[in-house]
C-alpha cells in the first residue's frame, strides 16, 4: 500500500487549473481551505469535505495554527481609531460618519444592500 503524508482531517488547498505557458507569478493554489474527508485505498486520490475527489499531488497541506489568533487589544483599537481621525483631519470633505470599516468589495456591497433595505 502507498504511504502518503496526508491524513483524514488535514487542512489542504487545491491546485488551480491553469493553461499551459501561463505567467509564473500567478496564484496556483486556492484561497479556500478544505478538509480531507477520506483517502482511497490506493493512496492516489482524496475526497474533500465538499464531496470533490482530487489527486493528492494536486493538494497542498496547510499547517494547523498552533493557537487561536488573539483578538484585537484595546491599544490596537485605539491606534486604528487614531489613524482614521488623522486621515479625516488632514483631508477636506471627509466626515467620520461616511467611513465604512470593511475593506473588501463584497463586504461593501452587502453593507450597501442592507442600508437600502432599511
Structural write-up:
With 118 residues, the protein is an alpha+beta fold. The chain is built from two helices and five strands, in the order βββββαα. It has a five-stranded antiparallel β-sheet with strand order 4-3-2-1-5, with no helix packed on it. The longest helix is centred in the C-terminal third of the chain and has 17 residues, at 74-90. The mean pLDDT is 77.
Topology diagram in text:
Elements: E1 11-14, E2 34-39, E3 45-48, E4 53-55, E5 59-61, H1 74-90, H2 105-117
Antiparallel strand pairs: 1-2, 1-5, 2-3, 3-4
Poorly predicted ranges: none
Domains, number = 2
**Outline:** elongated
Major sheet: size, sense and barrel closure? 5 strands, antiparallel
| SS summary, helix count | 2
Q: What's the order of the H and E elements?
A: EEEEEHH
The percentage helix is 25-40%
Strand order of the largest sheet: 4-3-2-1-5
Strand content: 15-25%
Amino acid at each position: 500500500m502507498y504511504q502518503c503524508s496526508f491524513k483524514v482531517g488535514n487542512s489542504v488547498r487545491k491546485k488551480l487549473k491553469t493553461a499551459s505557458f501561463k505567467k509564473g507569478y500567478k496564484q496556483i493554489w486556492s484561497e479556500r481551505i478544505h478538509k480531507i474527508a477520506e483517502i482511497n485505498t490506493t493512496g492516489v486520490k482524496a475526497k474533500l469535505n465538499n464531496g470533490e475527489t482530487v489527486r493528492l499531488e494536486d493538494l497542498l497541506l496547510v499547517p494547523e495554527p498552533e493557537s487561536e489568533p488573539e483578538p484585537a487589544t484595546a491599544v490596537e483599537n485605539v491606534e486604528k481609531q487614531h489613524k482614521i481621525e488623522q486621515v479625516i483631519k488632514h483631508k477636506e470633505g471627509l466626515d467620520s460618519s461616511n467611513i465604512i470599516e470593511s475593506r473588501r468589495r463584497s463586504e461593501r456591497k452587502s453593507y450597501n444592500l442592507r442600508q437600502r433595505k432599511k
